[in-house]
Design a protein that fits this description.
six-stranded parallel sheet, four-stranded antiparallel sheet
């Protein structure tokens, strides 16, 4: 049996490809059921975020990664030859090392960001609810959560760390300089949106508009930061007011079309608008960037913003790498013991057969033994078998 990991992320694939292989929360139950049904797959788990889509599996053969890639192609409706050059396939301790680095926040676009640990835990919980994990993936992901916690408590990797939302604000500041006096529209009311608004308000923005498909969430978030909640149906008119738009929804299709932006620009009399789309799949049609005075950025454009921060965290990254190496060693030693389990079970079964046979012989030779004596002999011989079995 083999521990496998296949996938792609922001380091290997552009957002245009990542969005085609993104699997939404609503699709996870169906996806996990289909994965578990594949021949040779005994355990599986899906981790799909804006920066990665990864499948973890416990499988009969190392070559089952090809089966999983084929499933990704079929489930997502993407030709396999179109995405294979952008993927990776890892096994054994390499798969464990990758996951531990992800949970620790050092495989993220924004080094040290905390959201990914929550996403790892959520992916594990969902797989558990669907019954697609077993002893191997349970142990692996429980240990990954421990690695993530250790990294953030034993090092300063997350101290002052930004997120995709805060990186979007940094990008906006690099464009405008002083953000005071500008109107910002936040589309989406998740954790990324919350972090973006938090950084916006600390940067001098005092007019924040918030919209979301579930209006109550928009109201709640806007109230927390003294912003203004906008009905999702009024998104088009809200675009007319906004100088900066930050989008981070979970929609499968763009919610802001080129035509919507064009109409907004007409109403704005050509005043520039900056759209920072950090959703995967993307929220804004790419064609909108071709309009005059429309400046569209996607999540991959944030890379330059966070690169300098990575250099500042070099010492902390080294500390986290040491934790990861230690934890990988522990997991690998545990994983290797699984190979011995069938042998040990067979030995115990053989020992037990011998024990029972000898106790029965003794009872026939000594018919005067009381039931209590027989029970005492049985307990003593079981203890001998257990002690002999322990060393192997």
């Amino acid at each position: 049996m083999h521990l496998l990991l296949v996938g792609l992320n922001h380091n290997t694939a552009p957002v245009e490809l990542r969005e085609t292989l993104s699997i939404s929360k609503a699709q996870l139950p169906e996806a996990l059921a289909a994965l578990k049904a594949l021949e040779g797959i005994s355990e599986c788990l899906l981790l799909s975020t804006c920066n990665r889509t990864e499948v973890y599996a416990y499988s009969e053969s190392r070559s089952d990664d090809e089966v999983i890639f084929g499933w990704m192609s079929d489930f997502c409706g993407v030709r396999q030859d179109g995405f294979m050059p952008f993927t990776y396939s890892l096994a054994g301790h390499k798969a464990a090392e990758h996951l531990f680095r992800v949970a620790a926040g050092i495989d993220s676009m924004v080094i040290g960001e905390t959201q990914i640990l929550g996403q790892v835990k959520e992916a594990y919980a969902t797989a558990g609810e669907q019954g697609s994990t077993g002893s191997v993936l349970n142990t692996l992901f429980q240990q990954a959560a421990s690695v993530g916690k250790r990294a953030r408590t034993e090092t300063n990797i997350s101290r002052g760390a930004s997120s995709a939302g805060s990186a979007a604000v940094l990008l906006a500041k690099s464009i405008f300089g002083d953000l005071t006096g500008h109107v910002v529209l936040i589309v989406g009311a998740g954790k990324i949106a919350e972090l973006a608004i938090e950084h916006l308000t600390s940067s001098g923005i005092n007019q924040v508009l918030v919209t979301n498909r579930t209006h109550e969430k928009a109201v709640e978030l806007a109230k927390e930061f003294c912003g203004e909640a906008i009905e999702f149906g009024d998104l088009a008119s809200a675009l007319e007011r906004a100088d900066i738009v930050i989008t981070s929804t979970g929609a499968k299709q763009p919610i802001i079309s080129r035509d919507m932006v064009h109409r907004a620009m007409t109403a704005r009399r050509g005043r520039p608008v900056f759209l920072i789309d950090i959703a995967v799949p993307r929220d804004v049609e790419a064609e909108a960037s071709k309009l005059d005075n429309v400046f569209l950025y996607n999540i991959d454009d944030l890379q330059a913003v966070v690169e300098s921060d990575k250099a500042n965290r070099k010492a902390e990254i080294e500390g986290v790498e040491m934790i990861v190496a230690e934890e990988v060693d522990g997991f690998t030693r545990w994983f290797r013991t699984l190979e011995a389990v069938p042998i040990i079970a067979a030995l115990r079964e053989k020992f037990e057969d011998i024990r029972q046979t000898e106790v029965e012989k003794l009872c026939r030779k000594l018919p005067h033994l009381s039931p209590e004596d027989v029970e005492a002999i049985s307990m003593a011989t079981k203890s001998i078998v257990n002690k002999l079995s322990h060393s192997p």
